[in-house]
Amino acid sequence: MASIHSDNEKKLAALEALKYVTNGMILGLGSGSTAEHMIHGLGVKVSEGLQVKGVPSSERSAELARELDIPLTTLEDCGKLDLTIDGADEFDPELRLIKGGGGALLREKILAHNSKMNIIITDSSKAVERLGAFKLPVEIIPLAVWPILEELNAMELQPVLRKTGQTNYRTDENNFILDLNILKQDDLTALNDTLLSIPGVVETGLFLDTTNILIMGKREGTTTIRRA
Ligand code: 5RP
Question: What is the SS3 assignment for 187?
Fold first, then answer.
């Protein structure tokens, strides 16, 4: 459960990110509690006359956007997104991210890849010197779960199949998630490439080079970090 302070920091970051939104933009809408603050703020702006369209990264964000009367569109209809605003589970000094705590990493990465600009919004607890205290989510095809578990165990990544209660967690694409311990991994690009080369692995929660701007909420105000 998020503390009141971290929730306030998330809200501050979300409101700051909305300053980058201008009339006519096609926006990627992230997922998670920080992104939901942003979607609420966007709903207010839309009710005041801002004209934008959103492409949601999860069913949950789509539902929230519909409730707030934010017009939605699809990547097929709009092509490139002007701006995507999303949260993160961890970020390091190079603005590399771990995402997917909420299970939406696949659609989030598709939006990030197809966006002209990506702004990440977080509370201050997400800043780390080295990625990996948060387990790395990896989306996999259910059919391949057993061989993938074996392969990742052999790589000492300690995969854990994500559960909701007694049942296996399912993503919006009806896939499974494995959460991996990557603390001992020094080369994250090589790790990402290796994971993606395993048949049945659909996507990883490593977002190594998509972030343009990161806005971190603090007790009072926000800090904005731009990719060098
Ligand atoms: C969902 C995500 C979220 O951005 C991440 O889990 C952060 O969530 P929150 O804003 O609730 O802390 O990657 O797949």
Answer: coil
Residue closest to 71 by CA, chosen among 60, 80, 62? 62
CATH number at residue 160: 3.30.70.260
What is the best residue among 1, 11, 31, 135 to mutate for testing ligand 1's pocket, by most ligand atoms within 8 Å of CB? Answer: 31
From first to last of the 228 residues of the chain, give the pLDDT tens digit: 568 889 999 999 999 999 999 999 999 999 999 999 999 999 999 999 999 999 999 999 999 999 999 999 999 999 899 999 999 999 999 999 999 999 999 999 999 999 999 999 999 999 999 999 999 999 999 999 999 999 999 999 999 999 999 999 999 999 999 999 999 999 999 999 999 999 999 999 999 999 999 999 999 899 999 998
The answer to whether 139 is a known catalytic residue is no
Residues having CB closer than 6 A to ligand 1 are 30-35, 86-89, 99-105, 108
**pTM, entire model:** 0.97
Please, what sign has the CA dihedral across residues 38, 40, 45, 50? positive
Q: What's the structural domain count of the chain?
A: 2
Quote the domain boundaries for residue 46: 2-126+208-220
